[in-house]
Design brief:
2 copies of one chain form a homodimer. With 145 residues, the first copy, chain A, is of the alpha+beta class. The first copy, chain A, has 2 domains: 71 residues, Orthogonal Bundle (Arc Repressor Mutant, subunit A), CATH 1.10.10.10; 43 residues, Dna Ligase, domain 1. Chain A is 32% helix and 25% strand. Chain A contains 4 helices and 6 strands. In chain A, the strands form 2 sheets. In chain A, strands 4-3-6 form a 3-stranded mixed sheet, with no helix packed on it. In chain A, strands 1-2 form a two-stranded antiparallel sheet. In chain A, helix 1 crosses helix 2 and helix 2 packs across helix 3. Chain A is globular and about 55 Å long. The two termini of chain A are 14 Å apart. The mean pLDDT of chain A is 93. Chains A and B meet through strand 4, strand 5 and strand 6 of A and strand 5 and strand 6 of B. Chain B binds a DNA duplex (30 and 30 nucleotides) through helix 2 and helix 4.
Chain lengths: 145, 145
DNA sequence: CCATATTTTTAGATTAAATCTAATTATAGA
DNA sequence: TCTATAATTAGATTTAATCTAAAAATATGG
């Protein structure tokens, strides 16, 4: 539904990418990357576990958490927690960006950092290092092609 | 440390305020309001419980949650969950506003809705109903008086 | 290739925040 | 006062995530 990023990596490509980031490319990690870097859109740990249960011989819940945290440390993944849900979601979009929540479907869509401008008025007290933004509303259906 | 809002309400004033919002003014609720509406700044449920343990004969943890949720339903309180912490915080500022997190102290400061302008570019897909913003950074020390 | 050190994975226990349950207590209204 | 309704309570439960320590896999050095 959303536009693909670096989607569609072969296990070999994933493996090299992990190595370049100093992460041992184990079978479990490659499988999880297949999902979080290629297939999924803002998955939760539970989403990953369910995917693994279908697509991997046997994987512990702890491995899911170990792996996403390793990927985060390696700079391959980011985690977000939003006010409307208690589950952490993982995002392979590691560039500066914000989020839009479609309130009818619950879908979260990335918004490029360049596409949002935040202006702070009447405030000399703050040195702002970064901003986290969640816009909420409805998604407009595109017409035609 | 932060500037007071409607701080300093007597038990009678709190009681009337609860009644006006269709909430039975019980001893527990009045006590909790004393704290969340008058004394505290973005308290967590745990903060409320700890305060109650010092200032109220005996209060169950369930009552803390029951009460804040009742106050939220009644429109007297809002809840916020931020990405940097897993605890829900409660805020008696029910007007449109955003937040600033002082990363050195962990303090959260309200920013009036009018003081932030959010501009969305290159995006025709979204009908934005509301925005949640958390700015992070450092608080500048005010000089002199 | 082998021996061994290091790293990863695992099942199950644990933690932490919040909610639920069902019994007790308080309150409101006739 | 009597009775219905609402609120409070202790403790159990749920949920997301982490921790533990044993087992399995992998890397390294000769």
């Amino acid at each position: 539904m959303a536009e693909p990023r670096n989607r569609c990596l072969s296990p070999q490509e994933i493996s090299r990418r992990l190595e370049r980031h100093g992460v041992q490319p184990t079978a479990q990690r490659i499988a999880i990357c297949q999902y979080v870097l290629c297939e999924a859109e803002h998955p939760t740990a539970d989403d990953i576990k369910q995917w693994a249960d279908k697509n991997f011989p046997k994987m512990s819940r702890a491995t899911v958490y170990n792996t996403v945290n390793t990927l985060i440390e390696a700079g391959l993944l980011r985690e977000f927690r939003f006010p409307h849900d208690s589950k952490t979601v993982y995002d392979d979009n590691i560039s500066d960006h914000y989020h839009f929540l479609d309130e009818t479907t619950g879908e979260i869509i990335d918004i490029d950092g360049k596409d949002i401008e935040i202006k702070l008025r009447n405030e000399q007290r703050f040195i702002v290092k970064n901003a986290e933004v969640l816009l909420r509303g409805k998604l407009v259906k595109k017409k035609g092609v």
